[in-house]
# Entry
Amino acid sequence: MNQSEESGLTDRESDRASEPGSTPGSADAARRRPLFRDPFVRRAFYFTGALVTLFLVTVVSALVMGLHDPEAPRTSAERALRISELTAMQNPEDSEAWGAYLQALIASGQLTQAQNLIDQLAGVVDESGTEEVAFFQAAVHMESGRYEDAIKASEELRTRLRAYHETQKQAADTPESRGEPVHENYWQALIVIAEANVNLGNVEAAIKALDEFLEEKETAADVLIRRGYLKEQLGDLEGAETDFRAALVYMPGDPAVMEHLQRIGAE
Amino acid sequence: MTDSGQDTYGDSTSASRDGRATRRIRMLVVAIIIILLLALAGVGIMLANLISPRSGVATADATGGIEWVRSIYGWGTTPEEQFVQPHKLDIAEDGTIWVTDAMYPSRAFAFSPEGTYVSSVGDEAEVPLRGLGPIAVGMDDRLFIGEPMLDWVRVFTKEGQDLGAFSVPNPIDIEYARGTMVIGSTSGFAIIDPETGAPRVVIGTRGQGDSEFDTVNGIAIDDDGAIYVSDAYNNRLSKYDAEGERVWMVSTGAPGNQVELTGGTAMAESRVTTAPAQMQLPGGVTIDGSGRIVVVDAFDFSISVFNQDDGTFLAKYGEHGRLDGQFVWPVSIEYDPQRDWFAVADKGNSRVQIIRLPGSAPGVDVESQIRRSLAGPLRACVPPVLLILLVLIVLAVRSFKKRKDSQSGVAGDSV
# Structure
């Protein structure tokens, strides 16, 4: 015997009894019954149960069909992350390996993990590793939208790298004393400074940073294009054209550069 | 006020209180359901993101019109278990992708359509293989793997059981479809008896003439048994009928074997071509679901599409680069008709890419969309949909039975 039968009411009657605004007698009957006897609640319960069941069936189906193999990288970013992590773990003394891992973390947008790793590495790596880590710290600031911090970190890095280079140059029998140039990150930090300034709306400061970069690396066609584009934004079309044409020397006929030139009416 | 009036007043107050309580409970239930739905949606989106690889390339511009699905990088998690130079590949009827790697010359690797490593053939101790090249999977589950340096084709079961070998000079590409086996080499191609390995028809000699070949790098066979071959250094694409008679031949670019190395711009001058495809080095060939001939170009980092009937150039897709969907020296390509996608051995990027091209699907658009969807993570939704259908059927049957019973009850009463 079910509860409806016990109470002497059919399901339909009990449903009607628990409707808001129903007659006083039927309301009393409804009050005496458990919550689940309310047809609305009961239907809601069935609906929710069905949804959860369907969801679980979908998840189990995905697992059974092997739609996801957590071990196998599927994208270039996943592969770079997986391999660089393993390589860094296998070579804990190698700052370049850690650098590659940090780069992969930043490229895949895992900035919190990158920051944690930077914090861990700060007290562990040697001097050259510290400079590497400092560069990635600037990159993490940049990617996190902390542009002022990115500029500050990049400036500090450049000061340290320059000082280190000068010291090594004075020392006997060092690569720097034999003419090795300042570390590449010294120049890459300029790119970070330029892009951070662009994001802060300081286009002139960005151009200044790229000027310094191009003084040393005048064949960097992509940086020439970038500076040309920034000059165009400032209305310096002549300067923009000069940069685009300089880029064409190293990228003859490049469609993107031609498009830039066409846009400023200089083709 | 009478007693009965007081009672009525009391009852109506109580009913109103009950009504409010019921409404409160219902609102609570609705709120719980909404929270649950949001939680389910959140978990669902998270799982979908986990299952669907997110590409580093957002727009079709960056991939030259290619829709990237996923990549396969290796058969394990360690750096030593990653592809170095995936070279040739084939797709079995069940969607399994078989790959050989030029830098791992003693093994051929099998992956599920989802990109999970399944198995490999070749074992240094038991089944030594040397310098693996082309690979073909038959409908009869046999694997044919060419060893160009040893001038033969090895035959295996998918489980790796060695079934023997037959001699073929310098096998560069193998195609085995619809009972026809064709093997390409530097000097042409041969239609082979797949049971004995004996050549039935041998076509071509090495050279630059119309009936000559200079490295048959890609072969495809259509439903009628017609054979399509790419001639890498002559930069040509040809169609032959099942008996080996040529149907058409088109130039796909400047021949790589006619470059004059005189220095300066002379080399560039000699490579001027009027061929609309402007290919550099045609490689693997396959036929898509709409019957188009699809040819991969290693040095143009692209895929060109041709008309099956006359070899007219139709379209070109692809961009050079290392991002998902871009190529560096793609060498071979195969089409999976069940999933409407292509597997491309992207040699310079050390990966096999699963991609889609516009217009490759067979049948009408809706059908192709369903086919594509079911090849992806949406496949997991099939069992719950079937479950819903099952429940609906059960409910319908019950309702029908109930109605029938009540009708027979009424009929009985009236009798």
Residues 63-362 of chain B form a domain with the Neuraminidase fold (CATH 2.120.10.30).
